[in-house]
Write a structure and sequence with these properties.
Helix content of chain B: over 70%
CATH architecture of chain A: Orthogonal Bundle
Strand content of chain A: under 5%
Number of helices of chain A: 3
Number of helices of chain B: 4
Number of domains of chain B: 1
Shape of chain A: flat
Order of helices and strands of chain A: HHH
CATH class of chain A: Mainly Alpha
Distance between the termini of chain B: 57 Å
Structural class of chain B: mainly alpha
Radius of gyration of chain A: 15 Å
Number of domains of chain A: 1
Helix content of chain A: over 70%
Order of helices and strands of chain B: HHHH
Largest sheet of chain A: none
Largest sheet of chain B: none
Number of strands of chain A: 0
CATH topology of chain A: Helix Hairpins
Structural class of chain A: mainly alpha
Oligomer: heterodimer
Chain lengths: 83, 111
C-alpha cells in the first residue's frame, strides 16, 4: 500500500515537472510549482503514516503555508508586472 | 483492519493527486489546468490526512492532520482565485463562448 502510494505520488510529480518545463506562461509554472508542493506535502504525510513518526507533521504544516504564501506572492507579481 | 482502511485511503488520495497531475499536463487552456490542479488534490489531501490519522492513532497526529485539512480547505480556493484573476487580467485569452465576465462588467483589462 505504502509503496503504491509513493509510486502514484512520484508519477504525479513527474506530470507537474513536465508542465513546469513546457508551460507557456508564468501562470502555468506557478500552477506546476503549487502542485509539486502538494506532492511534497502528501509524500511527507505518507511517510509519517508508514513509520509512525510524528516528526514530519510539523514540516507538513510549514510546507502547506509556504505554498499558499508563494502562490499569493507570485499571483500578485504576475498581476503587477504582466506575464 | 484499520491499517487496511488507512492504506486504501492513502492510495486513493495519491491517485487523486496523480489525476490532478495528468490534468495539468493534458488540458489545453490555463483555466482548465487551474481547475484540475485546484479541485482534485483537495479531496486527495483530505483522504491522505484521514489515512494518516487512522494509521498513527495519536492525539498529535489527529490534531495536525485536522490542521492540514482545514488549511488546505481555506487556502486552496483563495490562492487559486488570486492566480485566476491575474491570469484573466494579464494573459491573452481565447474563450470558447465569448468573454462573459468582460461583457458583464465592462472591460476587464483596466484596473
Amino acid at each position: 500500500m505504502i509503496v503504491a502510494a509513493f509510486a502514484l505520488l512520484a508519477l504525479a510529480g513527474i506530470c507537474f515537472m513536465v508542465r513546469l518545463f513546457i508551460g507557456p506562461s508564468v501562470v502555468d509554472r506557478v500552477i506546476a510549482v503549487d502542485g509539486l508542493l502538494m506532492v511534497i506535502t502528501c509524500g511527507i504525510l505518507v511517510e509519517v503514516a508508514s513509520d509512525d513518526s510524528v516528526a514530519g507533521l510539523d514540516t507538513v504544516l510549514v510546507v502547506a503555508l509556504v505554498a499558499f504564501v508563494g502562490t499569493g506572492v507570485l499571483a500578485r507579481y504576475v498581476e503587477r508586472r504582466g506575464a | 483492519m484499520i491499517d487496511t482502511v488507512a492504506g486504501v485511503l492513502l492510495v486513493f488520495g495519491s491517485a487523486l493527486i496523480l489525476l490532478a497531475g495528468v490534468g495539468v499536463v493534458r488540458f489545453q487552456s490555463v483555466f482548465a489546468r487551474m481547475h484540475s490542479a485546484a479541485k482534485a488534490p483537495t479531496l486527495g489531501i483530505l483522504a491522505i490526512a484521514v489515512g494518516v490519522a487512522l494509521s498513527v492513532r495519536s492525539v498529535a497526529a489527529l490534531v495536525t492532520a485536522l490542521l492540514v485539512v482545514v488549511l488546505q480547505l481555506v487556502t486552496g480556493p483563495v490562492g487559486t482565485h488570486l492566480l485566476g484573476r491575474s491570469a484573466y487580467r494579464r494573459l491573452p485569452n481565447d474563450f470558447d463562448a465569448g468573454d462573459e465576465l468582460a461583457s458583464n462588467e465592462g472591460s476587464g483589462l483596466d484596473h
